[in-house]
Amino acid sequence: MYRGVSPIEIIRAKGLGFKYQQADTGECWALRDISFTINKGEFIVILGPNGSGKSTLAKHLNALLLPTCGEVWVNGLLTSDEANHWQIRQLAGMVFQNPDNQIVATTVEEDVAFGPENLGVPSAEIRARVDEALELVGMAGYKKHAPHLLSGGQKQRVAIAGVIAMRPECLILDEPTAMLDPRGRIEVMETVQRLNKEGITVILITHFMEEAVIADRVMVLADGRLAMSGTPAEVFMRGDELRALGLDTPPVVRLAQELRLAGVELAPSVLTVEELVSELCR
Amino acid sequence: MQIKLENVSHTYMPGTPFETRALIDINLTIEQGEYLAIIGQTGSGKSTLVQHLNGLLKPTSGRILIDGKEVDKTAYREIRRRVGLIFQFPEQQLFAETVFEDVAFGPKNLGLPEAEVRRRVENAMLLVGLDPQELGDRSPFTLSGGQMRRIAMAGVLAMEPEVLILDEPAAGLDPRGKKEILDQIDRLHREEGLTVVLVSHSMEDVASRAKHLLVLVDGRQKMYGTPAEVFRDGQELAEMGLGLPQMCLLMHKLRAAGKDVPTDIFTVEDARDAILKMLGVPQT
Asked: Model ipTM?
């Protein structure tokens, strides 16, 4: 039994491994020996090529999957103890890639109310939570709208509101912008950043390298293992290793590296266009 | 083949409360050997437009000319053979028991002899970088997502089209998978001489590859030109919520800060050279 939770820790994985059966090739380890801790209020980005185990890992963080070996704790609760599952899923809410698969109701406010209703929250309180959640994601003007007629970015924000109405500590997003257009991506990313500033821990899985730049910490998965972990600057400094894994750095980081090779002096922390412009205009 | 759209408009469900004007007065010529990227937000009319190019949709008003001849009812079958359309997430359309059967479905329906079907399937698989000997007898559903997508592409290429239309071919792939598929499309354009029409959300992906860009906003043709022409005015694209490729944005910001740099820059290598020149660093 794990005890003595430090006041700021929210998720801990220790020696996490996950194995599943595949039809033609037999058993396969999707996750191997993964250990990390995530603290309350952190903004974590998980990167990794297709098939590296990112989604499998995310599903372990709210007990949708249980470890084959090792342990995962959410707020000090062990995920492999079934008695903890309700509480864990209320603490760690999940948003998936396809917004269309996450809609359950015919109006936006009913959709957002679905989670708290299932928690048995009294109806006056549900009203307050739904209003607050829609306010937080910038969708307060759409309460009576039919969710299936909204844009992709709006649908994802409704899905996020549905999770927020559960009052979670932690928001896990599995490629929430993969199917969105540029405007939808900006809407969702701004919403996620705002919620993080409100104190919610964010764990974001993405293929878009430029979305990782705003993280407190980046974790890189490759072939089911935790291959790298560090600040965005630390991880993106290892561009060649990232490319060998099938990932990349944002173009501006690659450019900064090329300029350094050509003898231009730049601060090591250049991650965005704005930072490079101000370095070059010093 | 040349495809020409003259004042093409399309309205869904006309005369009903759900009437939607999806395309409004589009004029566009796609020449043989073109590489056109169509860019716009969701709902801007991109998919409606490309479905006109192979006769899946007919204009509500305006007309479509193929090699100067107006398309009529009798021509649709012919057009669908010459213009191949690959939908978004095409791997969801795989259905056969083996990869070979899946790719062979189109050519078989054309009534081609067996030897010709085999030649086309093998050729199409090689074109997308898959080994017909190794994978032909496998079930498509046991392969990786990237491989499945390429099999779906091979199924369209086996029809030996002259024009290839792809709707978001790189969606959902990791950076390597994305680069592989876009490089493959470049190769089909360059080496096989295919005319390519690519629908994308991503300025980053198309800026350095396409010859021409068409920007759609609310069903209207908002901008058309070479990447250099379209990205000259960053402000206008930003207002449309489309943004610039990162390298192009960097150049615009350097210019705004008073530096003398060109703005038609889309690759890291070109940006490096432009900045070194700006700084007066000698280049090797």
From this structure: 0.79
pLDDT digits (tens, 9 = 90+) for A95-106: 988 878 888 899
Phi and psi, residue A156, nearest 5°: -65, -35
Cα–Cα dist A232/A234, whole Å: 5
Residue B35 to residue B206: CA distance in whole angstroms: 10
Q: How far apart are CA A116 and CA A167, in angstroms?
A: 9
Q: pLDDT tens for residues A225-253?
A: 999 999 999 999 999 999 999 999 999 99
Read off the amino acid at residue A123. S
Between strands A77-78 and A69-74, the pairing is antiparallel
Higher pLDDT, B241 or A210: A210
Quote the crossing angle between the two packed helices A273-280 and A251-261, to the nearest 10°: 30
Find the helix packing angle between B268-279 and A251-261, rounded to 10°.
50
Which of B40, B268, B276 shows the shortest C-beta gap to A254? Answer: B268
Residue in A74, A88, A85, A4 with CA at minimum distance from that of residue A39: A74
Q: Is residue A247 within 8 angstroms of chain B, CB to CB?
A: yes
**Residue among B43, B144, B272 minimizing CB distance to A262:** B272
Taking the CA of residue B175 and the nearest CA in chain A, the distance in Å comes to: 5
How far apart are the C-alpha atoms of A35 and A46, rounded to whole Å? 14
Confidence of residue B223 (pLDDT cuts 50, 70, 90): very high
- The answer for residues whose C-beta is within 8 angstroms of residue B134's C-beta and 6 or more apart is none
CB distance B189 to B230 below 8 Å: no
Sign of CA dihedral B216, B266, A279, A185: positive
- Provide the residue type at A192 as one letter: V
- Tell me which of A46, A50, A252, A265 to substitute to probe the interface with B (most B C-beta atoms closer than 10 Å): A50
Comparing C-alpha atoms, which of A261, A267, A262 is closest to residue A281? A267
Task: Check residue A49 and report its DSSP letter.
Answer: -
Distance CA A136, CA A127 (A): 14
